[in-house]
Write a structure and sequence with these properties.
OB fold (Dihydrolipoamide Acetyltransferase, E2P), two-stranded antiparallel ribbon
Length: about 120
């Protein structure tokens, strides 16, 4: 526990600029979870919730064929990416407009989404 501060610390978010509290309790939680990263967070709790984890991206399902088990995801500043159903976590099918988080890997035909997690279903309207 040598990296643990003995007091709360006020930090500033690199994304939105607001100040936030890095509490002694949060510091203890990181150490108890055996996290190798015990340095202070660079983003406030809100931005940490909104941003994908390191090495992952977010996008919206453009289309997905449940019978053939593949489709495509649109990304903000990159080309669409292929998704195969074998990479879905906890879901058997996706629908256009679903928000997903994924990592990028390489398949037989090039880049593809891997370890795809559904974050939010498009609200039926």
């Amino acid at each position: 526990m040598s990296n643990l501060k003995q007091q709360d610390e006020t930090l500033f978010c690199e994304r939105c600029g607001i100040s936030f509290l890095w509490s002694v309790e949060e510091q203890k939680h990181r150490i108890a979870a055996n996290t190798l990263d015990t340095k202070p967070p660079s983003h406030c709790p809100g931005c940490r919730h909104l941003l994908p984890d390191a090495g992952r991206e977010r996008g919206f399902v453009k289309w997905y064929n449940a019978q053939k088990r593949y489709g495509f995801i649109t990304r903000r500043s990159a080309p669409e990416i292929y998704i195969h159903g074998s990479e879905l976590l906890d879901q058997r099918r996706l629908a256009p407009g679903d928000l997903v988080e994924f990592s990028i890997g390489t398949g037989e035909r090039g880049p593809m989404a891997q370890v795809v997690q559904l974050l939010e279903r498009l609200a039926a309207g």
